[in-house]
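Hello,

Our lab assistant flagged a job as stuck in the queue for most of the afternoon. It eventually completed. Since we weren't sure the result was trustworthy after the delay, we are filing this so someone can double-check. Below is the sequence as submitted and the structure that was eventually returned. Let us know if re-running is recommended.
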Amino acid sequence: MINEHHKRIVETATTFFNNNLTPLPCNYNAKKPANSGWGETTYKNVEAVTAEFSKRDCNLGILLDDKTVAIDLDALNISNKIGVAILGRCGIGIDRNILGRDKKPCGKIILKSNSSSNYVRHKVSDEQGKTIIELLGHKHNVIMPPSVVDDDDQFTYWNEFYPEMNYHSEAEIITAMKMVALWSMLDENYPTGDRDNAIRCLVTLFKASDLDFIDADFVNFFTDSLARTNNDDERVNKNWAKFYEKTVKTKKPLDVLKKGFGTLPDYVQKYLVDALGINERKALKISTLQDVMEMTFDKPKFLVKDMFPVGLACIAGRPKNGKTRFTHWLAEQFASGNNVWGRETLTGSSFFLSLEDTQEDWHIRSNQMGIDKIDNRNIQFVTMEHWDGSTFGKGVEEHIEDWIASQDNPQMIVIDTYVKVSAYKKGKDMYAEQSKELGRIHKIAKMNQVLILLIHHTTKADYEDAFDEISGSTALQGICDMIMVFQRKRGTGDMNTVIKMTGRRITEQLHTIAPNDSNEWEYLGEGDDQSKISLPTMEKNILQSIGTITDLFAVDTGVKVKDILDHLKITDPKVPVKYLKGKHRQAYDNYSKKCRRMVASASLYVGDDKGSYRLPPF
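-- returned structure --
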């Protein structure tokens, strides 16, 4: 007969299943799952869950999959709403499943994370080794309720299941966990004397931190909640936010800690510094002009001579303007050691954060561009399926530095697109925020002598200065070593693209380029004066072929695309269009599309016969 406890376990297991969690039957009064091979547990339907959990009196566990993690709030003082509230203020918001029991109502929080397959257990313990908070990842079992069932401590859960949950990065989760653990340690070691001075010291240390979520409101909540929990009425509602705003960022945070909060145990002091990410600021190393002028430096490094210097760069343009294909073509040239428009290039590997592409997109585009024919190991990427949600200041820099360290000859990193990793939030000072996040990535590029290329968008407005069309604040233009604006008239059939470039180590430049039938970017000339711009190869082929065929065979009704390809010896005259396959079919489709575009731009006319074309009458 099923008792009330077992009945509740069965009901909750089905609730978990209906909310995309995998319940596990665990041995009664134990943490171990009841079935062998539990790491591969699946259920066909809710009836299967009910049947499995009805076999025995058991505990309930949750199997974490490759996109699910759990934060275990083990310490009693944080396994309530305070722990959840701190996580929320650190960016781990309401997108969670909260599980608990009477004594620990918010004991475990289930989150979504794209990087969970890489997790090891992350644990924070006190000086005695007792766990405060713990992170569990892929194929771990989260035991619910407690392994030993106590009639006085009934299993409960918060019915806060969200079918659409945001994904959090590993860096975000661990940073938030550290803040919860810090609160727990400070609560256990709340000052007994001169509390005003101790809290002022704590606020000063918060001011020294560069963590994005720390502001006056966060500090006021953190200190106020500590005071309330410890019945320190004098410090409750004392408005520490105002003190935070007036406090100057200290250059000696460790000295402040020792003087103002010296009663804290050493392990808490060390953890406080680690959790807030603060270090003693060393004196600046100041150089004289004479010192620098006596130094020798290597010749400035360019990936493409006089066009693409190492450092931070940005390519901006309207959506679907060819920016992504252009950077893929650049990576192909670097991988193969080919020149770009007659200019010397450096050979090496490229890395793409392709956050708007899937692996299928890469497969299709690479086939179209012929990138599959080169040494593909020099072109590496991560696509949206495997991105962990990192942003600037929360994991992106570390991912880039890890890739650079793993390569023998790293040359280019492309971030496609910038807005996908920007940590800027509406309402904040855009210039200040962009300066901060781009400054970090700029330093990585310069220190490692690589090109970090941001793909970005321009606004819908037209400006006299093309660079003013770049979306965002002027911080981006100010920090980047090179900026390029992609301009093409869409809807006209004209594929010519004008690129305007400027930078610290290059002269201001204006070039016209265009993709050819092989999806390579041809150089058509300097400037944007169409009367001085060369025709793309495919367009030349079409015009010359139509002219030659018309003259040789006295054709006046028009020339068909297949005739053009036969004349160019791309296809066999004996093979009809319907039997064209592979590269021949692709060529036919490319030339047909180009002819239609030329008609749209009046550089070609429709012939009298269906599907034929003729030269303009001039």
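-- support follow-up --
The delay was a queue issue, not a problem with the job. The result is valid. Confidence is low (pLDDT under 50) at residues 145-154, 157-163. The longest helix spans residues 170-188.
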